[in-house]
Amino acid sequence: MTKKIEESIIYEGGCHCGTIRFRVEVNSHKAINCNCSICQKKGFLHLIVPQDKFTLLQGEDMLTTYTFNTGVAKHKFCRNCGIHSFYIPRSHPDCIDVNIRCLDGDVISKFEILPFNGANWEANIHQLK
């Protein structure tokens, strides 16, 4: 059963080895489960937030960026453990997209997980705007 939380909550999270740490303020507990090729392989559950709701606490010098296709999305990952904790999404290039699986504790159950057909991105992107 998914619980719906409406109030703003601050979470912290990071990569597997602890090199990358961040803080995010969450106003809407809705996350997106995209079925595109990269999201499927990474297991990314998307929480898109404005940049002012995200703070990188440590590890900026250990981030590496992967881009492909249009080059708009900036997929950030830890150079040490390889975990993709967050990135700049193509759908919202002025925001940060946090993987809720990288938040501290067992918090996934606090989010409503919404499916998104990213395998057909061009036809469906209007659903995320």
Report on the architecture of this protein:
The chain is 8% helix and 39% strand. By secondary structure, the chain is mainly beta. It has one domain: Metal Binding Protein, Guanine Nucleotide Exchange Factor, Chain A (Beta Complex). Strands 6-7-8-9-4-3-10 form a 7-stranded mixed sheet, with no helix packed on it. Strands 1-2-5 form a 3-stranded antiparallel sheet, with no helix packed on it. Strand 7 and strand 8 form a beta hairpin. The two termini are 27 Å apart.
* Helix proportion: under 10%
Question: Please, what is the oligomeric state?
Answer: single chain
Overall morphology:
globular
Low-confidence stretches: none
Distance between the termini: 27 Å
Quick description:
With 129 residues, this protein is mostly beta strands. It contains two helices and ten strands. The protein starts with 8 loop residues before the first strand and ends in a 5-residue tail after the last helix.
Topology record:
Blueprint (H helix, E strand, L loop, with lengths): L8 E6 L6 E6 L3 E5 L2 H6 L2 E6 L3 E5 L4 E4 L7 E5 L7 E3 L6 E5 L12 E5 L4 H4 L5
Parallel strand pairs: 3-10
Antiparallel strand pairs: 1-2, 2-5, 3-4, 4-9, 6-7, 7-8, 8-9
Name a few traits of the molecule.
single chain, 129 residues, mainly beta, Metal Binding Protein, Guanine Nucleotide Exchange Factor, Chain A, 10 strands, 8% helix, 39% strand
